[in-house]
C-alpha cells in the first residue's frame, strides 16, 4: 500500500518537502524528499502530525536519501515523528543519512531527550513540617538579630557618612526626620491617648463605684498610664506609622538600587539612611510619650468630673499622693529603647526587600508586626525588672 502526502509544490524557491510511506514485509518505510529547512517545513507540519497519530507499527524506517537540505527545524520535525512512533511501540531506524545530517539529528535528539531536573520536594507536613518551620524561623531570627546588631553598632559609632573617612552628622536630615516622625504624629497620639485615658477612667470608676472607692480611679489612671499604657501605646502607634514608613522608604531605595549606588560612590548606607532616622526616633518618642501621658490624664480628668463628680482640684491632690517622679520616669526610661527597637527592625526589613512590589509589601507588614510584638515583650521585661528592683 502506497500513500503520498506532499507540501505546496508550487512554492517558489527550494523544493517543498514531501513524505511517502509504504509497507515492506511488515516494516513501515517513510521516505522523506525535498528541502527540510526553516523556510519550508511549515507546509509539511500538518501531514507529519497526522502521520504521528497513525503510529509506525512494530518496525519503522525513516529514509532520508531524498532529502536535499536539512537544518535544525527539519531535524526537529523528523525527531518528533520518530519519538511519536517510538512511544507507540515501534522500533525506529534511519537509512540514507549523510554524516552531516546524522550529526544534526544526534544533536537534536540529545536536546529532545535531555532529562528535566526533578522539581524540588515540597515542604514537609505534619509534625516534621511544624519543626521545619520552627527551625527556619530560628535561623531567620538569628540573621535578623545579626543585621540589627550591625546597624546598632554602626549607629553608636557615629554617622559614618563615608567609609573610613571619619564622621559627618547631617543635622538637616535628623531635623527633617524628627518633623515627619514627631510633629506629624502629635495629633493622632494626642487623640488616641486621651480616648484611652477616658476609657480607663470610666471603666475604673464604674467598677470601683460598687465599693465606694471611686477616688482610687486617680491612682489607677496615674500609675497605669504613666508606667505602662502611655509609652506602650505611643510606641505601637509609632511602629505602625513611622516604622512602616522607614521600611517602605529604604525598601523602595533597595528596589531601585539606590543603596548600591550609595555604596559605589563611597557612602555608607547606614550613615546616610538609617542613622538620621534612629536618632530622630530616639528623640521624638520620649517627647511623644510625655504628650501622650498629658493627653491621657486630661481625658481621665474630664471623665472623672462628669461621670464620677471628681473635681479637677481633687484629682490633682489625689494624684500628688498616688504617684511620684519614679512613676513618671519608669515609663520614660522605656521610650528610647523602644525607639531603637522600632528603628532597627524597620531598617532591617527595609534592607531585606527584593526587587518586587510584593516583597516590599510583605516586609512592610513584617516590620510593623515584629516591631509591635517586640515592643510589647520589652515592656513586659521592663515590668519584671522594675518589680525585681522594687522601682
Q: Largest sheet at a glance?
A: 5 strands, mixed
Biggest β-sheet: strands ordered side by side in the sheet: 1-2-3-4-5
Specify the helix fraction band: 55-70%
Supply Rg.
38 Å
Cα(first) to Cα(last) distance is 105 Å
Order of helices and strands: EEEHEHEHHHHHHHHHHH
Which structural class do you get from the secondary structure elements?
Answer: alpha/beta
Strand content: 5-15%
Poorly predicted ranges: 1-11
How many β-strand runs?
Answer: 5
Quaternary structure state of the chains depicted: single chain
Mean pLDDT score, rounded?
82
Q: Number of helix segments? A: 13
Can you describe what's shown?
- With 391 residues, the chain is of the alpha/beta class.
- Helices cover 67% and strands 10% of the residues.
- It has helices spanning 45-54, 72-87, 99-112, 126-157, 171-181, 186-208, 217-255, 258-264, 269-308, 312-322, 325-332, 334-351, 357-389; strands at 2-6, 18-24, 27-36, 59-70, 91-95.
- The protein is elongated and about 115 Å long.
- The model is unreliable at 1-11 (pLDDT under 50).
Q: What's a quick, concise take on this entry?
A:
By secondary structure, the protein is α/β, with parallel strands linked by helices. It has helices spanning 45-54, 72-87, 99-112, 126-157, 171-181, 186-208, 217-255, 258-264, 269-308, 312-322, 325-332, 334-351, 357-389; strands at 2-6, 18-24, 27-36, 59-70, 91-95.
Task: Please outline the helices and strands.
Blueprint: E1 2-6, E2 18-24, E3 27-36, H1 45-54, E4 59-70, H2 72-87, E5 91-95, H3 99-112, H4 126-157, H5 171-181, H6 186-208, H7 217-255, H8 258-264, H9 269-308, H10 312-322, H11 325-332, H12 334-351, H13 357-389
Parallel strand pairs: 3-4, 4-5
Antiparallel strand pairs: 1-2, 2-3
Helix pairs in contact: 1-2, 2-3, 4-12, 5-9, 6-7, 6-9, 7-9, 7-10, 7-11, 7-12, 7-13, 9-12, 12-13
